[in-house]
Design brief:
Structural class: alpha/beta
CATH topology: Rossmann fold
CATH class: Alpha Beta
Keywords: Oxidoreductase
Shape: globular
CATH architecture: 3-Layer(aba) Sandwich
Distance between the termini: 45 Å
Family: Belongs to the NAD(P)-dependent epimerase/dehydratase family. Dihydroflavonol-4-reductase subfamily.
Largest sheet: 5 strands, parallel
GO molecular function, one term: oxidoreductase activity, acting on the CH-OH group of donors, NAD or NADP as acceptor
Strand order of the largest sheet: 3-2-1-4-5
InterPro entries: Epimerase_deHydtase (IPR001509), NAD(P)-bd_dom_sf (IPR036291), NAD(P)_dehydrat-like (IPR050425)
Helix content: 25-40%
Protein name: NAD(P)-binding protein
CATH superfamily: NAD(P)-binding Rossmann-like Domain
Strand content: 15-25%
Length: 159
């Protein structure tokens, strides 16, 4: 028996991101209803167009700032599971904290909202960001599940 069976509603945060959009697509193809969070209404409408063949099985909620207390309160209502994929991506920053602080705060925010929503949420899946794998390396290459960003790990240890 599946804890969260097809037909259940799954919240996917950051639904317009690369990884999250694939999560949305896979869930829809497997028969789940999906509610995605996006930062703007335009991004939500764009996703509705992409997933229009799934008709009413995809909806979106605008969450302009994932770091705010209560940011996900509306989005978590009546969902059975959450796939948290929203995370800041900023390739121009030189300060790792510009990525780490909002990523941690966004994760705290979704967990607080889920906790306050009651017991309907049966599972929460956290996905990392592309920053976990990318290294500052000018050589083009293909990354696989065997790769890891050792540069970031070393940098974090010095902080």
């Amino acid at each position: 028996m599946t804890i969260v069976p097809p037909g259940s509603t799954v919240l996917v945060t950051g639904a317009n991101g690369y990884i999250a959009a694939w999560i949305v697509r896979t869930l829809l193809e497997e028969g789940y209803r999906v509610r995605g969070t996006v930062r703007t209404r335009d991004k939500g409408r764009a996703l509705q167009k992409i997933f229009e063949k799934f008709e009413t099985k995809f909806e979106f909620v605008v969450v302009p700032d994932i770091t705010k207390d209560g940011a996900f309160d509306e989005a978590v209502q009546d969902v059975d599971a959450i796939a948290h994929a929203a995370s800041p991506v900023n390739f121009s920053t030189e300060d790792p904290q510009d990525l780490i602080r909002p990523a941690v705060r966004g994760t705290e925010s979704i967990l607080q909202s889920a906790s306050q929503a009651g017991s309907k949420v049966r599972r929460i899946v956290y996905t990392s960001s592309v920053a976990a794998i990318l290294e500052v390396d000018p050589k083009p290459r293909t990354f696989t599940e065997e790769n890891w960003n050792n540069q970031s790990v070393a940098l974090i240890r010095t902080l």
